[in-house]
UniProtKB/TrEMBL annotation:
Compositional bias segments (type: Acidic residues): 353-377
Cited InterPro entries: Oxoglu/Fe-dep_dioxygenase_dom, Pro_4_hyd_alph_FE2OG_OXY
Listed Gene3D superfamilies: q2cbj1_9rhob like domain
Low complexity compositional bias, start-end: 709-721, 925-948
Organism: Gonium pectorale
Protein name (record): Fe2OG dioxygenase domain-containing protein
Amino acid sequence: MASTSSGSPGWQERLRDAVALAGSQHGSFAWIVDGNYEKSECGSGAERRLPSLSVRGMGPVTLPLGRESAAALLSAGSPAPYGHGLSTVLDPEVRRSTQLDAAEVELDAGWREEELAGIVADACAALGVRSPSSVRAHLYKLLLYEPGGHFRPHRDTEKEPGMFGTLVVQLPVAGGHEGGELRVRHAGQVRVWRTAAGSQEPAALQCAAFYADCEHELTMITSGLRAALVFNLVRTAPGAVPRPPPQGHTGAAEALMAAVRAWEAALAAAPEGAAARLRPDALRAIPLVHQYTETNLSFGRLKGRDAELVGLLCDCEALEVHLALIARNVSYTVVDERWEYERRKRCGFSDALYDDSGDDDEDEDEDDEEDGDEEDRDGGRERSYDSETGAELEDCVWDRVTTQLWLSRQGPEEELKALELDLTSVTLGGCGDGEAQVGGIFGAKPDRREYEGYTGNTGPELAYWYYRAVVVIWPRARGAEVRTAAGVGAVLVALERLLAERDRQLQQLQLQQPGGDEAEAAGEPQHQASAPPRDPGKHGKGPEDWEGGAGDQLPQLVAAVGRLAEGRRGAFAGESWERGDLPARALRALVSPPVLAWEGGAGRGASALRLLSALARSGAVRSGSFIAAIASAASALSVPAFDDAVVALVARQAVSQTERCLQLATEAAAPEELRGRLAGALMEALISGGDAGSGGGGDAAARGGGDDSSGSDVTDGSDVGEPVGAGNGGFAALKLDQVVTLSKHVCAGAAAFRAHLPAFCAAVLGRPDCQALLPALLREAAVAEAVRAREPHATRLAEARAAELEAVVARGRPVPSWEQPEARLPGYPQVEAFLRGPEKRMVLAGLWKRRPQAQSWVDQHFGCCAGTRNGYSATARADGVGTRAYVTIVKDHRLHGERVRQYEQTVAELEEVRALMGDSRPTEAAAAAVQSGADSAAGASRSRPAGRPSKRANVPKAEPRSKRRRTSST
Ligand SMILES: O=C(O)CCC(=O)C(=O)O
Ligand SMILES: [Fe+2]
């Protein structure tokens, strides 16, 4: 491992050595004060007085605890459970002690404020806790252990927000106790508190404190009674990003900086490869030594050694530092079918977790033998057993590693989860020599087990979960490369942060120079990505002007956005431009003053143009926010090439994204002139189909302008270069509501839209479904207004509708009749004929063997809606028994009622249309007149004039009973 794959020897070793130096000053994972606190080497040397203790229902309790008060406490308390998964469980095999809740116990205020605070301060110092002033000890329980009392190895759950550790203060008891060693383990080390020594001394105060993720156990109390107060150690304020210790780390810092420089050089020397691929050497992960969860992992809450390491890394300006929580999930099938997970668990099959070998040496390295599973050889075949349950494991179903949480120093950064760290290859020092086996990184003991019994198609499975927090670093100068691999979201987050930082700097600058352009500055809001000021001059020449080199990354991030937009398809590492607001955010960032200032005069707007063109080609103009961003960008830029590209975009996507294009052409934020061109391009694409020269809207750019004129890769399937006749092409594909929306603009919108009114009306009339469009169009206020104003083209729409309605009205009000000429009942011609004919009633027999069959026939053909769907209205009922089952069908007037309703609607609509057109003739008479004129002209007399009494003879009102017939079918 003398050289790295990048060919520059040793950057990785140097990095590892520098990082190792950071471990030298860290606090211990556990702090133990045996015997009298006063004598302790860790303590401040002050004698710690005993608390005045009082218990609800008992009053003051004198210390050391006497026999009587001990008995009273034991009867006031209850057996202590332990946390198992999400619940708490009582199991004397795992834990045997008596507890009193904090609410039952009172400690005098003086003791809490002086003695306890002092103990906490000493504990924090020993554990290496940063900003100890925000740490408090909250009493959790008073515990009593009688002979046989113990607590098997466990980790403490973090019981309240901010809790990171446990403090145990042992109270003296008359006669003391024997046995009871508290053993705290962490990273292969163990620290032991022999709690018996001095446990009876009147003034003795012994304590221990440890990080809650450290495994600990209390071995058996063999005689006497042990009493202890257990406190949660809680951070009451969010911790800051850890700082390295003030002195003594210069060597480490210098070594680190040198290593990072070597790393940068190695990366610069090696080829970059595909844009969206992360090079194996681009970043490194260093596992943290403590355990963290999704809720407690943060820069401010790192523990002991981890805090010191991360402090050192954060102090190195050349590095970007992140935290990630990685989970490994391994699942096995379980061999023994009869094996019952719950039963084994109840029987306390957890001996492998309990090691009572009397390992007395403090600070001794231990073999980590509390493994998740043990191996055994069985006739040559390797068998694995789960150590907690004894289950025999068979095949590994899966073994996968996922990122649960990703934190940058500014907070969670979801986007970087997409990097999907492969810890076997990116762990510092873990490359190439097998050191970084996945199992090694995650530890042998699972943090969580999950058993799933037999399901429909799989046997029982046992799943293990392992969690490992890591600190991830990469050279800041290479940030854009790493983020590119995570996708456009990750790149944008960094770019936006950079821009915000620039804002902050400029704001500060303005505060510092109140003279000069003060008035102007006051009038100009600081740039917001959404509303950039138009004068970039004040934003300096470029990122090289930025304080502290903060602008260094700007060019790379801007380039990364462009590259990702042009993207090799599928190379987005789980990200895509479709998600969220990415196109809009990207465009806003690219037209922000700092970016424009960097691009300079001639290149101004080039990145925005590149983005727009690339996204337009891939059809990603689907979001409303992107449209708004395009409009603002155009007005921020005032760059003709950009405007041309926007026009080309609208021309290209008019058919597939009509609403969006319309939104763009009417977006108030867009410059007015551009809006006019967009309206023209849109209408042309939809209606005239490139028929150049239509007034106001004709725009060459709509078909060939901008830089994205290739047209060959249009994904929406429309070819705007081909002339499309009125009513064809784009317009034919528009939905009703789209046509209505367009009508508002062509009747009452901007001039560029209104110029297209004639073509629009012609296109509407040219559509085969024109009569379906017209009612909605004529009801649209802008169209109605145009008709009222006798605008000739809009009037043609009204005329066309009126003609259609008149024809219907002229046929007269529907006459009541039992005839239902549109009735359909396939398979039953005789029934169909009856339904179409004038008879009201029919009896059908001989078709069924049993009445239920007849009933289901009725349900099928005369049940809810069946008739209405098939052009008839009748009810039917089944009667009779066995083969004599029959069905009686009786027509009703629902169908006729519906026809009348429709007719009345037609009359009403015709009245409305006539009113619009200023025609006040009585509708039915007028229509009839029109129609009879037409009829007589054609020599036909099919219709009756409206208002004439209907032919009652047609309508058999009630049929005499005797006339009923049975129609039998053979
Ligand atoms: O009794 C002790 O010293 C330790 C108790 C303990 O580990 C716990 O309550 O979680
Ligand atoms: Fe504990």
